[in-house]
Fold:
Amino acid sequence: MSLYKRGNVWWSKLYRDGRPVYQSTGISVADDGVDGATLKREAQRKDKAWAGEIAKGAFLPSGEPDDYGELVEDLKRHYRTTGSRNLVEVDKRLAHLTPFLGGVRAARIDAAAVARYVEHRQREKAANGTINRELGILVRLFRLAFTRKQVSSPLVIQETLKEAAPRSGFFEREQFGWVRKRLSEDLQAAVTVAYTYGWRTQSEVLTLERRQFNLEAEALRLDPGQTKNDGGRLST
Structure:
């Protein structure tokens, strides 16, 4: 912890989880009728008290909250370390959120900001289901930040957009075979797995690794976090 001057006000620089956070003490360097030494001691008292609260996990800085970009990095780090979600899908959703919200302070991302984002994506002709998935990632980002006391409240989205009815129709095997033989060998393998098991090509098939193939058992395995519901899956 440390105390420094910003303009005429004492500010406290503290560290939470190894990262600096800043908080105004609200104490002016030269209040009328009070000597400077007394003011500094009062600022130091607040600084010390906040450091103790941080040690207990009870302090939320209000002076300079994290911005969206910092929260995104924390979310991705969380998914990498826990393996609880496939980052390919997460990055796909963030590819649209980040250009719109990058650099925005977390405190300014509220219901009005969400509404502006929805309008922006609808102008880009994004499907309502796609927008709902993107907002789901945003909600998770704020939920994690809230548990880590980086924001004062989680982001709540009262209503989701109405999504289109599930697609009807299917690809006959003869039609599939006609398309398959026109692809390269590596893509033939990928589309065969997708067609046989009904797996999602981008997030489930193309992310498979050799260790997930059991040739003796003639089985394929998806790890927890690699599927839409975050559970594992075994197909034979």
About this structure: The helical segments are 36-56, 68-82, 87-101, 111-123, 128-147, 173-180, 185-197, 201-205. The mean pLDDT is 79. The longest helix spans residues 36-56. The chain has three domains: 2-56, 68-147, 173-235.
